[in-house]
Design brief:
Length: 146
């Protein structure tokens, strides 16, 4: 029994000496702050680039979707007369009116041709008449938000 008590008491004194906790010096704290600051600056720059790239890709994909829905509606029998507001017509007075019609949906017979998700920034897109007589949507130069 005495032997066990001696072993326990020895271990306790050893553990107490080993368990001393020392704090960080000022130089170590400054070094950690500098490293975290550098990582934060690099990470912020990287994330900003990712957001910019995502916005550019979204604009391009939205323009492709506009072209697809427009071409499908025209192929399905939708009209493209400027200034005419009708369920089966895409008002091609401007890009804003055409996009608004495609957002709301163009009904031809029982088929509804509609943008999903809707385009909230029609000014980000241009609408030009192609050589084949149909309209083509493209991203407006300088557009930064989808």
């Amino acid at each position: 029994m005495k032997l066990i008590r001696n072993l326990i008491s020895r271990n306790r004194t050893r553990l107490s000496r080993l368990q001393k906790i020392r704090g960080l010096s000022t130089a170590e704290l400054v070094g950690i702050i500098v490293i975290v600051g550098i990582l934060g600056a690099l990470g912020g720059t990287y994330i900003t680039g990712l957001v910019s790239s995502a916005n550019t890709n979204t604009l391009a994909q939205n323009a492709a979707s506009l072209n697809s829905v427009y071409a499908s509606a025209v192929a399905g029998g939708a009209g493209t007369t400027a200034g005419v507001v009708a369920p089966n017509n895409i008002d091609t007075t401007s890009n804003s009116t055409a996009i608004a019609d495609l957002n709301q949906g163009v009904t031809v017979g029982t088929v509804v041709y509609q943008m999903s998700p809707k385009i909230n920034t029609p000014a980000s897109y241009d609408m030009n008449l192609s050589s084949s007589g149909t309209y083509v949507f493209s991203v407006h130069p300088g557009a930064t938000t989808p």
